[in-house]
Write a structure and sequence with these properties.
alpha/beta; Rossmann fold; 6-stranded parallel β-sheet; about 40% helix; globular; Isochorismatase family protein; Isochorismatase_domain; Isochorismatase-like_dom; Isochorismatase-like_sf
């Protein structure tokens, strides 16, 4: 495995949707961490891809994240089956994943990406489920299949690599 690099990463935001989030355990903290990832990605020019599961039923992306990217609408739980998703993540970048629900859309997408030999980093403090047990089981399963489990701060500081980075102070302010 290797350290994450801003030049070699793509942030993937899965289904942080308005009608779903009130049911997600610790939802506000997860959205806040996803917001930190988005801000760091924009600061460090990391591309962002975002999905919405059945937005007619689950609503649009939460306002805090809605401006991050144009959402790819999907009905399949696995985003890899959604039109336009595979094209949006084409290349060989590391995929930094955050989103909901850990054991359904998020989990199926991550497993498909791993099956397709992509490097997947799961940001555990920006991943949610309605029930904590579902998240825990999903993260263990994903890790067994090759996903690296990381935190928001790990992503930001690995993207920076050094306190001499020109965006260090701005990025540091995001995670403090």
């Amino acid at each position: 495995m290797h350290l994450m690099s801003a030049k070699r990463s793509r942030l993937v935001i899965i289904d942080f949707q308005a009608r779903l989030m009130p049911a997600i355990h610790d939802g506000p903290r997860l959205v806040a961490n996803a917001g930190k990832l988005v801000a760091a990605a924009k600061l460090l020019e990391v591309p962002i891809v975002m999905t919405e599961q059945n937005p007619a039923g689950l609503g649009a992306t939460v306002p805090e994240l809605a401006e991050a990217a144009s959402a790819i609408t999907k009905m399949s739980f696995d985003a890899c089956a959604a039109p336009g998703f595979i094209e949006a993540i084409s290349g060989d970048e590391d995929l930094i994943l955050c989103g909901c629900e850990a054991h359904v859309c998020f989990g199926q997408t991550a497993l498909s990406l791993l099956e397709n030999k992509r490097r997947v980093f799961v940001v555990q403090d920006a991943v949610g489920s309605r029930v904590p047990e579902s998240k825990e089981v999903s993260l263990r399963r994903l890790q067994r299949h090759g996903a690296e489990v990381v935190t928001t701060e790990m992503v930001v500081f690995e993207w920076l690599r050094t306190a001499e980075h020109p965006q260090f102070r701005a990025a540091l302010a995001l995670v403090k």
